[in-house]
Design brief:
Blueprint: E1 3-8, E2 14-18, E3 37-40, H1 62-96
Antiparallel strand pairs: 1-2, 1-3
């Protein structure tokens, strides 16, 4: 059963109503009581993936996974040597003072 969105043209009250597809649209506003209610076409009807595990990276190819692991292992090695060089440069500037 879908959820429909309604808007009252008299008081601009908006709400959602869980109804059967074959049910008649509501006419009377629950806030003001006037028969100025209309069903609004909303963005509904889409598939919603709720919960953990629905990510675009869940179904990557094996070649992508191998390349990513190579980049990760290469990235870790270069960061360690790069930080050693920068610390040597800093210590050299301190001894110059």
């Amino acid at each position: 059963m879908p959820t429909y969105e309604y808007v009252c043209d008299a008081c601009e009250h908006t709400f959602e109503e869980f109804q059967s597809i074959t049910a008649e649209p509501l006419r009377k506003c629950p806030a003001c009581g006037k028969n100025k209610l209309r069903r609004v076409i909303g963005p509904g009807g889409a598939i919603l993936f709720k919960g953990s595990g629905f990510y675009c990276t869940d179904y990557r190819s094996e070649s992508y996974k191998k390349a990513a692991s190579r980049e990760k292992s290469n990235g870790d090695g270069s960061n360690g040597s790069g930080s050693g060089k920068s610390s040597a440069g800093k210590s050299g500037s301190k001894s110059g003072e």
